[in-house]
Amino acid sequence: MKIKISNYPSRLICNIHSNHMNKKYGYVDWPDNQDYEDRVLEAIDDGIQSVYNVFNWIWFDRRTQKVSVKIDRWDTWSMDHTLAPIILPMLIQLKETTHGAPYVDEKDVPEELWPPKEQISAMYQGQTDDNYFKRWDWVLDEMIYAFDCKANKDDVHMRFDINDRDGMNKEQNRISNGFRLFGKYYEGLWD
Q1: What angle do CA 173, 128, 135 make, to 5 degrees?
Q2: Residue 124: pLDDT band by 50, 70, 90 thresholds?
Q3: 35: which strand partners?
Q4: What is the pLDDT of residue 156?
Q5: pTM for this one?
Q6: Mean of all residue pLDDT scores within the chain
Q7: Using one digit for the tens of pLDDT, what is the confidence trace for 76-98?
Q8: Partners of 103 in the beta sheet?
Q9: 47-56, long-range: CB < 8 A, 24+ apart
Q10: d(C-alpha 188, C-alpha 58), whole Å
Q11: How many CB atoms sit inside 10 A of residue 116's CB?
């Protein structure tokens, strides 16, 4: 298997106004009423960006991300083992660099990570509860555990005493649940 994926195409963006505002007011609380200097910088920024947009249209918007994948016959003999060492480091990096989180069903996490009762009404108004990001971290940890077991450890039956059926079943259930969560939250795997 050989995989080559280029970086996403970029565009020219003028950040004069936003850099000024972030430096002056911070990253969160820009005032609604801007002073004269702020408005002048915004007008300059808009003018430069309109020139950039022409270059973006001519050059950058026509580019696409390049993806090249070559699959050999033997890559699909045990595809779950072939993909695990690729997916595992991606999940680890995602967990380390994530800036957000998708909605996670409370039934997919332990009860201690469910939304506190007093915050449930706020969730229906689009707000997050105290455990919102903890639920996603837990789901990522379970996915990482499952792919780590597949990529780096022997089969579950090889790691347990043949008489420890409860231990083997508990371990296999955790691994299977990690793969189930991977499938369920596949579209939430973004940074």
Answers
A1: 15
A2: low
A3: none
A4: 67
A5: 0.72
A6: 89
A7: 999 999 999 999 999 999 999 99
A8: none
A9: 48/14, 48/16, 49/13, 49/14, 52/11, 52/12, 52/13, 52/14, 55/12, 56/11, 56/12
A10: 33
A11: 10
C-alpha torsion sign, points 179, 95, 167, 84 = positive
Q: What is the pLDDT of residues 126-139, one digit of tens each?
A: 778 889 999 999 99
For residues 39, 43, 45 and 48, what is the CA-based torsion angle, rounded to 10 degrees? -170
pLDDT, average across residues 158-170 = 81
Q: Which long-range contacts (CB under 8 A, 24 or more apart) does 76-84 make?
A: 80/150, 81/150, 81/151, 82/1, 84/147, 84/150, 84/151
Hey, is 17 helix, strand or coil? helix
Q: Rounding to the nearest 10 degrees, give the CA dihedral for residues 75, 81, 85, 90.
A: 100
Tokens of 128: 């997050």
User: How far is it, in rounded angstroms, from Cα 178 to Cα 139?
Assistant: 8
| pLDDT over threshold 90, residue 155 | no
Amino acid identity of residue 56, one-letter, is N
Q: How many residues does the chain have?
A: 191
Q: In one letter, which amino acid is 105? A: D
Strand intervals (E) in the chain: 2-5, 67-70
pLDDT value at residue 34: 83
Burial (CB < 10 A; 0-12, 13-18, 19+), residue 127, is: exposed
